[in-house]
Design a protein that fits this description.
Layout lengths: L1 H17 L11 E6 L2 E2 L4 E6 L7 E4 L5 E3 L1 E3 L2 E2 L4 E8 L12 H4 L7 E4 L6 E6 L3
Parallel strand pairs: 1-10
Antiparallel strand pairs: 1-2, 1-5, 3-4, 3-8, 6-7, 8-9
Length: about 130
Amino acid sequence: MIQRLLPIALLCLACAAIGCADDGGLKPVTGTVTLDGQPVAGIDVVFIPVEGGRTNSIARTNPEGRFRLTYTSQHAGAIPGEYKVLFKQEEPDTGRELLPARFSSGGKTTFRATVEEDGDNVFHFEIESK
């Protein structure tokens, strides 16, 4: 009995080590966000699918304004398709949104992105405070 289970156990261990989980066709998505021409840290970038039935992909910009989208805690990227793009930045103590609604509201944002099946999927977003 143990001899039969050993290969299965080893296969499961190997899958866990290399990540056998289906990524659902996710594509890597990276980019930068600048505010008034300067890289900005701590901005949440949210890709919201225009068509329903998919999960948002999110990221937070680093000090150089760069981001890399994640779909889940274990999977990076986004499913190919059209997205509205939101930018959010909350005040740490109050949770109050610091960016204007034209950037942080799904109904008001004019930012769009298309994640391509075979593209580079590198996006550069410039937001203006005025």
